[in-house]
Amino acid sequence: MQGFIINLNKVKDEDLIVTIISKNSLDTLYRFYGARHGVINLGFKIDYEKEGSAKSSIERLKDVIHIGYKWINNHEKLRLWQNFLRLFYKHLKDAHEIDDFYFNLLEDASQNWDKQSSKRVAVESYVKLLEYEGRLHTEMECFLCHNKIEGDISLIRAYLPTHKECTHTLQISQHGLKELYEHKSSLFLSNKEVDRLWHILLEGL
InterPro entries from the xrefs (predicted)? Predict the structure, then answer.
């Protein structure tokens, strides 16, 4: 089976507890340290097998093959990718079974990560996630004062809309935001606006 590594925890003797998003599950597996094992890292896509153990409630991760990205040697893109995937662990860590939406979302993002700005891919992917989970607020009403927003908008965590005067943060073009929400495209947002949306995203899914 295949999946994306969203968390690594070192345990005794450099063994690892590895959390992986696969098509239909969130797997937490034990990986023994050994010279014959290839290097794995946060954000890697791998092909792997699970093996039960009579000594532990955690299954063992085995037969790992790293499925590389074309951009894997671009350190900046890899850093952004790892920051993005780290968010999924915090968001999904208490789940056992998950829909294939999350795997497919990461699969699509990984394919587009070097075709346009990585931050734009992440922002567009996040909007798809918010919509899928029923948390995308498309009504232009301030989350803080509950009054209608005219003109440009400021956003806070989970892309909740507010007046600039209510949060004193960077304004986002309402036209660009509507295009993002309706068509999952950041084309009409400036790089500065995308940077702002990226930093909001880093606060948590």
Answer: DNA_rep/recomb_RecO_N
Q: Which long-range contacts (CB under 8 A, 24 or more apart) does 79-82 make?
A: 80/118, 80/119, 80/122, 81/43, 81/110, 81/113, 81/118, 82/41, 82/42, 82/43
Query: Could you identify the residue written with the tokens 């400021």?
Result: 154
pTM, rounded to two decimals: 0.92
Superfamily, domain 1-115: Nucleic acid-binding proteins (2.40.50.140)
**Can you give the residue ranges of every domain in the chain?**
1-115, 117-205
Tell the residue number behind the tokens 């092909």, with chain if given.
47
